């Protein structure tokens, strides 16, 4: 029937809710899990030399490019909120894992650049404590190079916390405002019952 709202009996609403659950929860969760698994699987048995600063630079360029690409996807999405959640689930963990990986590589380089050897778990823990501004102090950079690297992370953290969230929220708002019927009441008759 024309003008009739699909009801749960014929499955349209149930399928739509399932799709939104998958888009809004399952897919971002799977993205985070895959990124963390890739971080732990990625080999790290190499030492960093002064020419390998490109590792961090390439990683940050990758994060920036993924953010830009995903903002375009948000603006074109039928489900901008779900796409915004997916973008945050990709960009922020990837950003943190890139720093953690660099810390692992730097942590393997004698003399000891941090107050303790950095395993992948220690490096991830340290990265998250710096990102969250908690900084327990149990792991600290002890060389000038490590301190510079951590300072770069702190500055980038501020950009991510202030900038990435703002860019994603703004894109979601613009996409929602541009969608057909945005801000207009639903003219379809509703079933009571």
Task: Give the helix/strand layout.
Layout: H1 12-41, H2 54-76, H3 80-107, H4 120-131, H5 144-178
Helix pairs in contact: 1-3, 2-3, 2-5, 3-4, 3-5
Name its key features.
193 residues; Helix Hairpins; elongated; disordered N terminus; transmembrane
For the biggest sheet, the summary is: none
Level-1 CATH class name: Mainly Alpha
Question: End-to-end distance, in Å?
Answer: 18 Å
**In angstroms, what is the radius of gyration?**
22 Å
Residue-averaged pLDDT: 82
Count of alpha/pi helices:
5
Helix content: 55-70%
Could you spell the SSE succession in H and E letters?
A: HHHHH
Given the C-alpha coordinates, what overall shape results? elongated
CATH topology call: Helix Hairpins
């Amino acid at each position: 029937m024309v003008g009739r709202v699909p009801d749960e009996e014929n499955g349209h609403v149930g399928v739509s809710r399932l799709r939104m659950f998958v888009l809004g929860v399952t897919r971002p969760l799977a993205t985070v899990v895959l990124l963390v698994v890739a971080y732990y699987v990625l080999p790290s048995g190499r030492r960093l030399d002064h020419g390998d600063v490109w590792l961090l630079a390439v990683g940050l360029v990758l994060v920036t490019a993924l953010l830009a690409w995903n903002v375009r996807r948000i603006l074109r999405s039928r489900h901008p909120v779900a796409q915004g959640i997916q973008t945050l689930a990709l960009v922020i963990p990837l950003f943190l894992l890139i720093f953690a990986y660099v810390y692992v590589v730097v942590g393997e380089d004698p003399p000891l650049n941090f107050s303790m050897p950095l395993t992948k778990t220690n490096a991830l823990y340290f990265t998250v404590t710096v990102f969250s501004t908690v900084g327990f102090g149990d792991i600290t950079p002890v060389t000038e190079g490590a301190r510079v690297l951590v300072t770069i992370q702190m500055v980038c953290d501020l950009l991510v916390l202030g900038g990435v969230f703002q860019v994603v929220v703004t894109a979601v708002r613009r996409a929602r405002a541009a969608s057909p019927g945005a801000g207009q009441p639903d003219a379809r008759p509703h079933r009571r019952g």
